[in-house]
């Protein structure tokens, strides 16, 4: 308060000095300009009267008479702007003055005035022009310091005066401020109504007295709540710690000391903040949980102490979005972890036992669906599927029985086919999916007859187009081309999608190999698509060519042998 009063008084003084200096300078130069313009008008009229009597000789004579005393510049200009006379310059070297504003105004209205600043802004020249009876113009000018230059010249004097006034004002402000705040500094908060006070402070004193009573009541309530809090935490089986920002332990219960195997201090030593968090436990897990909470994050860690497993739950304590400490709760989860270990072991065993036959069945069915099984091997594949299915039935039956006890409750042929209609059919079936993915799917080319299996060829082309859509981006395209080069029929599928990194290009045709496993899981990829393409190509004695640039797209072409066309 004292600094504020002092600062405001000094600020008011400074503003008053600046305002006075600016106003004085402004009024002074306004009056000076007015006097100078009036002087120019009077002299111009004298010159007009003299020239009416004596003509040009009057100018010459008056210039000789007032050569040293006249500070005004006199210029006589003809109606066409030619300078006829100038008392301070050689008229033969002077340019035409018809374009000067004051000359133009005098020629048009009888008189004109103008002022111009020098290039350095240090001087200002005032002009007054008067038209004579013969149409010529007599102009009188006076040059003086500009307001800016005058102000700059006065600046040292003004600065000195301002400094002196400011020093005096500061001394007076300091003394006055001290007198104002003295009664406030002497105020007795325990007995605010005693002592010498300003009448204006009476409302404040009353408010302080009421606040004192409120604080005493709140302190009594806080002590009661503290006793209740202590009773609750001391009867908890879980460990409880309150940690300050610097790691000091502000509060703890007996369970925390027992769990963490810390020697329990005698009651008189159990004061808040008497221990540091490192005195309780120095394990990496415990320190990580505390550090994360003090950094403002909820964090949980599991900590094994002896044969018991505990869960450390740490939460930050915030006040006005600032972390001021942390609350640590320690839970005994030994039995829960033991049950979780049993559940994980059981789940792993069941998962493994179920996954094995399911994988076999899925693999056999996939190969049979794609027509990659020879007719003579079809029976053997069917028997394998039946055996694996029976194994699953038996396993599921055993699992159901175990759960009840636990719950106390007792063939393809090659022929001449046209590649273009097959590819056209695939494009037609995938058009809607491509549209949903915002990918343009187009086909071009012409009919190409080969000897092959339409179902396998359809699957091969389908997988290539499906991959082109899945691994693309919104606004991308997939182009299917059916044609022939050097007598060899081919089907090409090209996209401008995410492409395949160079290090993965040799392995993409392997079974279950996926470049981006997480992305493949999201879009439902199995990793078998390109493997089917590869084996389908082998079945048709064709070769697969691939060109891909990571981030720019992929082109895969199936080239059939030259003799495949029929």
Structure commentary:
The structure is a single chain. With 566 residues, the protein is an alpha+beta fold. The protein folds into 4 domains: 2-151, PAS domain (Beta-Lactamase); 236-331, Beta-Lactamase; 337-406, Helix Hairpins (Orthogonal Bundle), CATH 1.10.287.130; 415-564, 2-Layer Sandwich (Heat Shock Protein 90). Helices cover 49% and strands 22% of the residues. The chain contains 13 helices and 18 strands. It has a 6-stranded antiparallel sheet, sandwiched between helices. β9 (299-305) and β10 form a beta hairpin. α1 (2-54) crosses α2 and α11 packs antiparallel against α13. The longest helix has 53 residues, at 2-54. It is flat, with a radius of gyration of 52 Å. The model is unreliable at 404-410 (pLDDT under 50).
Unreliable spans: 404-410
In terms of DSSP E residues, the strand content is 15-25%
CATH class descriptor name of the largest domain: Alpha Beta
Give the overall average pLDDT: 79
What is the total domain count? 4
**What is the first-to-last residue Cα distance?**
104 Å
Number of helices: 13
Structural class designation: alpha+beta
């Amino acid at each position: 308060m004292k600094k504020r009063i002092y600062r405001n008084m000094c600020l008011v003084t400074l503003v008053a000095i600046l305002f006075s200096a600016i106003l004085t300078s402004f009024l002074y130069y306004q009056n000076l300009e007015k006097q100078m313009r009036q002087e120019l008008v009077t002299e111009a009229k004298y010159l007009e009267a003299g020239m009416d009597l004596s003509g040009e000789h009057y100018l010459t004579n008056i210039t000789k008479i007032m050569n040293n005393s006249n500070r005004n510049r006199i210029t006589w200009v003809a109606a066409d702007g030619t300078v006829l006379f100038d008392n301070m310059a050689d008229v033969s070297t002077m340019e035409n003055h018809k374009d000067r504003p004051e000359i133009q105004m005098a020629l048009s209205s009888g008189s004109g005035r103008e002022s111009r600043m020098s290039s350095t802004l240090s001087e200002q020249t005032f002009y007054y022009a008067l038209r004579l009876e013969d149409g010529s113009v007599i102009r009188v000018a006076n040059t003086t310091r500009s307001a800016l230059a005058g102000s700059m010249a006065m600046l040292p004097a003004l600065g000195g005066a301002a400094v002196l006034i400011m020093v005096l004002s500061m001394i007076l402000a300091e003394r006055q401020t001290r007198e104002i705040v003295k009664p406030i500094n002497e105020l007795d908060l325990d007995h605010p109504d005693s002592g010498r006070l300003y009448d204006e402070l009476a409302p404040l004193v009353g408010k302080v007295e009421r606040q004192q009573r409120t604080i005493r009541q709140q302190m009594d309530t806080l002590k009661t709540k503290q006793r209740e809090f202590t009773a609750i935490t001391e009867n908890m089986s879980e460990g409880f710690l309150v940690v300050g920002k610097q790691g000091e332990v502000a509060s703890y219960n007996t369970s925390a000391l027992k769990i963490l195997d810390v020697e329990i201090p005698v009651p008189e030593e159990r004061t808040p903040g008497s221990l540091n968090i490192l005195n309780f436990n120095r394990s990496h897990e415990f320190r990580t949980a505390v550090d994360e909470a003090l950094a403002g994050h909820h964090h949980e860690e599991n900590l094994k102490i002896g044969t018991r497993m505990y869960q450390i739950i740490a939460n930050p304590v915030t006040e006005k979005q600032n972390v001021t400490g942390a609350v640590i709760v320690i839970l005994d989860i030994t039995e829960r972890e033991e049950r979780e270990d049993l559940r994980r072991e059981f789940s792993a065993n069941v998962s493994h036992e179920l996954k094995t036959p399911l994988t076999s069945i899925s693999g056999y069915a996939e190969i049979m669906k794609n027509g990659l099984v020879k007719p003579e091997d079809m029976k053997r594949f069917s028997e394998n599927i039946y055996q694996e299915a029976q194994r699953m039935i038996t396993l599921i039956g055993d699992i159901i029985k175990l759960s009840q006890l636990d719950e106390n409750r007792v063939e393809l042929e090659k022929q001449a086919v046209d590649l273009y209609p097959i590819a056209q059919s695939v494009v037609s079936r995938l058009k809607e999916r491509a549209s949903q993915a915002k990918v343009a799917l187009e086909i071009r080319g012409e009919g190409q007859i080969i000897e092959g299996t339409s179902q396998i060829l359809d699957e091969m082309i389908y997988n290539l187009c499906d991959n082109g859509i899945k691994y693309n981006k919104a606004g991308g395209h997939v182009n299917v081309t059916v044609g022939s080069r050097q007598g060899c029929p081919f089907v090409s599928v090209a996209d401008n999608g995410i492409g395949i990194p160079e290090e993965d290009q040799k392995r993409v045709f392997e079974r279950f190999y996926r470049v981006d496993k997480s992305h493949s899981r999201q879009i439902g990829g199995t990793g078998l698509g390109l493997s089917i393409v590869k084996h389908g190509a082998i079945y048709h004695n064709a070769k697969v060519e691939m060109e891909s640039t990571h981030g720019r797209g992929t082109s895969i072409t199936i080239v059939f042998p030259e003799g495949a066309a029929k």
